[in-house]
Write a sequence for this structure.
């Protein structure tokens, strides 16, 4: 049960921030590194995660992305749940087709600790639309997640994700943002080639709000909060734990050109 709750919490913590950014690929030979901390509370479950993220634009319009996450602390009913360790690594790419449209593919490899990770490969791919209206910038994303069958012969369901974010232009130092992600489970899970539950059509909605604080031309700090609604979705992803999960995130960012 704890493993399923941990997996569910991990999905919920990242569902609003699947790709590195919803906005256009930066200039060639530029990049960014982030150290991100996520704290998730869901009823009796609590966990603290730490991840390193990086992106680099080797040539114009092509962005390469890497994420290496860790689970640092886990608690169940106030006690150590002993589910700490390295999580699966994600490598991805994004291509800016035109100024407002980009396509992406992220691949998550089964490199993490077996007790807290799926051992199949995960593919998340789709497209983005973004536009700067002056007073506010819009970033949106449509993506599909497909996870391959692991050594336990279980295959998670496919998930369609819809995300939209607004970044008001209010200050050169502080950029607030708010948005929401909708995750729609499209299929039922399978075990040994047979249906293993009823999840098709379950929907989870994750609103979030945050702000980026610019320190100087190179460094910035980011804080955000998100939560997830949808009893059927939570029951399916968190082993019947329908308590509303709340995730608080903070990151230190360094960009270079």
């Amino acid at each position: 049960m704890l493993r399923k709750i941990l997996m569910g919490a991990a999905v919920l913590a990242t569902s609003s921030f699947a790709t590195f950014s919803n906005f256009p690929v930066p200039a060639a030979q530029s990049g960014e590194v982030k150290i991100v901390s996520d704290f998730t509370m869901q009823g009796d479950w609590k966990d603290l995660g730490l991840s390193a993220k990086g992106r680099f634009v080797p040539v114009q319009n092509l962005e390469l992305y890497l994420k290496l996450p860790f689970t640092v602390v886990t608690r169940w009913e106030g006690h150590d749940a002993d589910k700490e360790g390295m999580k699966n690594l994600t490598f991805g790419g994004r291509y800016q087709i035109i100024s407002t449209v980009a396509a992406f593919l992220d691949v998550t490899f089964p490199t993490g600790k077996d007790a807290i990770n799926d051992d199949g490969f995960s593919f998340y791919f789709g497209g983005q639309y973004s536009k700067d209206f002056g007073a506010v910038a819009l970033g949106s994303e449509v993506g599909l997640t497909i996870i391959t069958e692991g050594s336990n012969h279980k295959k998670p369901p496919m998930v369609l994700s819809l995300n939209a974010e607004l970044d008001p232009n209010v200050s050169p130092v502080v950029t607030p943002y708010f948005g929401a992600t909708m995750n729609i489970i499209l299929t039922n899970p399978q075990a040994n080639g047979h249906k293993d539950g009823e999840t098709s059509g379950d929907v989870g909605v994750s609103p979030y709000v945050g702000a980026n604080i610019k320190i100087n031309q190179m460094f910035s700090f980011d804080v955000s909060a998100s939560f997830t609604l949808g009893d059927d979705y939570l029951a399916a992803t968190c082993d019947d734990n329908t308590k509303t999960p709340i995730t608080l995130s903070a990151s230190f960012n360094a960009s270079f050109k």
Helices lie at 2-14, 231-237. The CA atoms of residues 83 and 181 lie 27 Å apart.
